[in-house]
Amino acid sequence: MHIVVCIKQVPDSAQIRIHPVTNTIMRQGVPAIINPFDLFSLEEALRLKDRVGARVTVLTMGPPMAETSLRKALSLGADDAVLLTDRKFAGSDTLATSYALTSAIRKLAEEEPVDIVFCGKQTVDGDTAQVGPGIATRLGFEQLTYITKIEDLDTASNEIVVQRRSEGGVQVLKTKLPCMITMLEGTNTIRFGKMDDLFRAARYELKTWSRDFTGAEEGRVGLKGSPTVVSKVFVPKPRAEKAKMIQADTDTPDAQAAAAIDAIFGAQPKLADDLLARAAAGL
Amino acid sequence: MSEPSKPQGRKFQLPEHLKVYQNVWVIVEQERGIVHSVSLELLGEARKLADKLGVEVGAVVLGAESPDLNRICGDAIGYGADIVYKVTDPALADYRTDPYCRVMTEVVNTHKPEIVLLGATTLGRDLAGAIATTLATGLTADCTELDIYADNRSLAATRPTFGGTLLCTIQTLAYRPQMATVRPRVMAMPDRDDARTGRVVEIRPVLREEDIVTKVLNFIADREQNEAQLAFADIIVSAGKGLGKVENMKLVFDLARVLGAEVGVTRPLVQAGWATNDRQVGQTGKTVRPKLYIAAGISGAIQHRVGMEKSDLILAINTDPNATIFDFAHLGLVGDALKILPALTDAFGRRLSVNRMAG
């Protein structure tokens, strides 16, 4: 079994700052991490490897510095790592990104057919959740997003049973490999790497692939291959006015609570009526 | 997504053959006869866009033939659709990516809408990502604002990026349809107009169950009492790190009980294991729009703000008078949430029970 896990190196969004004058993102000094959502998918891939035996290849598209994230994934237990990097990829939107990654997955499949592609549910920088479905659609793989549990994987019949989060509940789906899976957050916890893997990751010779090497067409990647155009980037407008501060007669919690309730009902008389009506109805 | 840069060798003009694409569509999300509220919110938004463009609103309703489905088609018209494309087949009874994607691709290619909107739900995001690929067009996720640029009639889709620290406006200029997803509760719910009329176009795709690899074995519905229903709550009492320790979550639940409210939390509390992620409000959690949002011990980080700032009334309680949350809350109370929460619970309880006796 061959499992490919697509990951993305992202700036730690909790530490991003905006330049006050130019309104651009200040990347300097912001630590790069593996997209947190990808770790749930990586862990699930490694669990499948433990369960049924598999070769796990991690794949990322990004600048050369994304090597750090690949080595991290190797240290956690991935077998192989591919860095898809080319200046021609710069500016790719989700359609172009899924195209580029698919071309690399096809290349990997030439060595050994790919049974499962894992992607993160979404990234924390782009937040689109579109690249996984894009890859599944291009490869003609069954698409399994928001998976909470892999119940069963039968390598003889190639059947897989999963639980998928949907709006009103959980779908239990049975399908066949090959498939593309995105895991829901919180469904597992990423393992600590073993010492052996840590050493292996440090020594591992990364596969660095260019656009040319994967056979991706130039016109379908980068800005040229991206239908979406970013026409404006701006800082959210702060609300014009600040909060009206509630002043109580005394500093006791009771007085503050009473003043707060008066302020709430004063601002929203209808809310007071609703609450009183509910209370009167004994709800 | 890319940062803005000087475009080179890109097409910005709509090719002639794509100019026949017209009308604004909403793919109406229904599962087991229940329409997701976001679809109705989107019909209201589609109505505004279509009126600016001088075109019609189309609603696509997919499913197995049933009285529920007919009712939903009627609802779609009541909420703003001029045309309902009712796509029926037994294979469409439950949502599965493959048949839904195949059918939607064909319906779009046949009827050629210029804009296609979906809810940013598990279904909407799954389907949108697939059909934007088969249609090879632009898709913008999680939009918070939609508008039409008058000069070229294109959709301007604005969304938060980099965890909400920035907003960007994205357009699909040289491809059609222009696609976007919008999270529930971001757009206002329109009023239903029973006097509205529209036409229903029946579409019966050719689907064979044996060609569909994925089978739905079971559906385990969320039991309402276990799963927090934040997105639909009128009142939410939310807690942040200022609560200090997990035992103090009780104070938030006590107040919520008196108010018939739901309990929300910030992301660090979910990460600390104080609450399950169905209660998380914010960028990677739920977007809420209640009538009253009480934020206790929440500093007001942008990741939380983007999920709740559209609440009708926000009361913030924080010991720090300089906390960011006071910049966008409507009402502020400087004080110790651990003392004020129980006082609020008592005071609300008294006011509501006094009225109950009097009434």
TrEMBL record, chain A:
SMART domains in alphabetical order: ETF (SM00893)
UniProt xrefs under Pfam families: ETF
InterPro entries according to UniProt: ET-Flavoprotein_bsu_CS, ETF_a/b_N, ETF_b, ETF_beta_N, Rossmann-like_a/b/a_fold
Keywords: Electron transport, Transport
Parts of the chain that traverse the membrane: none
UniProt domain Electron transfer flavoprotein alpha/beta-subunit N-terminal: residue ranges: 22-218
Cross-referenced PROSITE patterns: ETF_BETA
Alphabetized SUPFAM superfamilies for the sequence: Adenine nucleotide alpha hydrolases-like
Keyword Transport: yes
Its biological purpose: May play a role in a redox process involved in nitrogen fixation.
Subunit structure: FixA and FixB form a heterodimer.
Family to which the UniProt record says this protein belongs: Belongs to the ETF beta-subunit/FixA family.
PANTHER family linked: ELECTRON TRANSFER FLAVOPROTEIN BETA-SUBUNIT, PROTEIN FIXA
Protein name: Protein FixA
UniProt organism field: Azospirillum endophyticum
UniProtKB/TrEMBL annotation, chain B:
CDD domains: ETF_alpha
InterPro entries: DHS-like_NAD/FAD-binding_dom, ETF_a/b_N, ETF_a/FixB, ETF_alpha_N, ETF_asu_C, ETF_asu_C_CS, Rossmann-like_a/b/a_fold
Domain Electron transfer flavoprotein alpha/beta-subunit N-terminal intervals: 24-216
Record-linked Pfam families: ETF, ETF_alpha
SMART domains: ETF (SM00893)
Keywords linked to the UniProt accession: Electron transport, FAD, Flavoprotein, Transport
Signal sequence extent: none
Family: Belongs to the ETF alpha-subunit/FixB family.
PANTHER family per record: ELECTRON TRANSFER FLAVOPROTEIN ALPHA, ELECTRON TRANSFER FLAVOPROTEIN SUBUNIT ALPHA, MITOCHONDRIAL
Protein name: Electron transfer flavoprotein subunit alpha/FixB family protein
Organism annotation: Azospirillum endophyticum
Biological classification of the source: Bacteria, Pseudomonadati, Pseudomonadota, Alphaproteobacteria, Rhodospirillales
